[in-house]
Design brief:
By secondary structure, the protein is of the alpha/beta class. The protein has a single domain, classed as Nucleoside phosphorylase domain (Rossmann fold, 3-Layer(aba) Sandwich), CATH 3.40.50. It contains nine helices and nine strands. A five-stranded mixed barrel has the order 5-8-7-6-9, surrounded by four helices. A hairpin with a 6-residue loop joins strand 3 and strand 4. Helix 1 runs antiparallel to helix 2. The longest helix is centred in the C-terminal third of the chain and has 25 residues. The protein is globular, with a radius of gyration of 18 Å. The two termini are 32 Å apart. The N terminus is likely disordered. Bound molecules: 8-iodo-guanine. 8-iodo-guanine binds next to strand 5, strand 8 and strand 9.
């Protein structure tokens, strides 16, 4: 069956039409991915945020690469430097496969919350049991210099929305799998963990908002991940969340960081982060 046939067979409709079932779009996306990658299923999915772009190459050989625009429900990358493709990657020589999303749709893009979590639902539809959500973010602790990877232990969702519709009551206790956090610490015992606070963006926080995030229990501030994690729990995926602190959050550092220094820190961390994640994925 050709890609066109796969898309036609499922004809899932527009994600933002209220009459469309977003799970049906995810199944249509999964059918196209299976057809284009030749893999009837994938075992794990990863969403690569800022600073995590090298991970795919370190996991193993890329066996197929698909433009997001060829897959139902996906759009091209909105953030410069993010790759608008998804890759099917061999996990070392384990015989298992990872589906790696090179970019994500952010809530601030205004494409709706269904678009934000479409990758997660597609991951479940291709058969993944585990999803790794990564991001670049601001840090609230001075002991986390730019370039520090931090495990997400829990989140505070300040977007005032949910990816779930109707009376869908989902328990979020241990949303960020303690088992997978333990596994990550076996790979790198120095890994710290913290509570990730998602703001709506696209502006960064004011120093006062950063202080608020701290007082309500936050350690990391960013513009992604929490809505995706909620959607992941809903479809039964085990979630590993890892942030890369690329900058101290507004007002946290007394010495203002130059953009060049942040970029440099991110690049310096890329290899370490890529290796870390690749090793974790190999042991899942
Ligand atoms: I990279 O300091 C990155 N993304 N909200 N705040 C928020 N998002 C971010 C930040 C930050 N740094």
């Amino acid at each position: 069956m050709s890609t066109d046939d796969a898309a036609r067979t499922h004809s899932p409709g527009d994600l933002n039409d209220p009459a469309t079932d977003p799970m049906e779009v995810a199944r249509a996306a999964a059918a196209v991915i299976a057809e284009r990658t030749g893999a009837p299923s994938h075992d794990v999915a990863l969403v690569l945020g800022s600073g995590w772009g090298e991970t795919a190459d370190r996991i193993g050989e890329t066996l197929a690469e698909i433009d997001n625009t060829d897959v139902p429900g996906f759009a091209k990358a909105a953030v410069a430097g993010h790759s608008g493709t998804m890759r099917s990657v061999a996990i070392g020589d384990t015989g298992r496969r990872a589906l790696v999303f090179g970019t994500r749709t952010h809530f601030y893009e205004g494409r709706g919350v269904r678009a934000v979590v479409h990758g997660v639902r597609t991951a479940a539809a291709v058969g993944a049991r585990t999803i790794v959500l990564t991001n670049g973010c601001g840090g609230l602790k001075e002991e986390w210099p730019p370039g520090t990877p931090v495990l997400i232990s829990d989140h505070i969702n300040l977007t005032a929305t949910s990816p779930l519709e109707g009376a869908t009551f989902v328990d979020l206790t241990d949303l960020y799998s303690p088992r997978l956090r333990d596994l990550a610490r076996q790979v790198d015992p120095g890994l710290d963990e913290g509570v990730y606070v998602q703001f709506r963006g696209p502006h960064y926080e004011t120093p006062a908002e950063v202080q608020m995030a701290k007082r309500i229990g936050g350690d990391l501030v960013g513009m992604s991940t929490t809505l995706e994690a909620i959607a992941a729990r809903h479809v039964g995926l085990e979630v590993l969340g890892i942030s890369l602190v690329t900058n101290p959050a507004a007002g946290i550092s007394t010495t203002p960081l130059s953009h060049a220094e942040v970029i440099e820190a991110g690049q310096a961390a890329a290899a370490r982060c890529g290796d870390l994640l690749a090793t974790i994925v190999g042991r899942l």
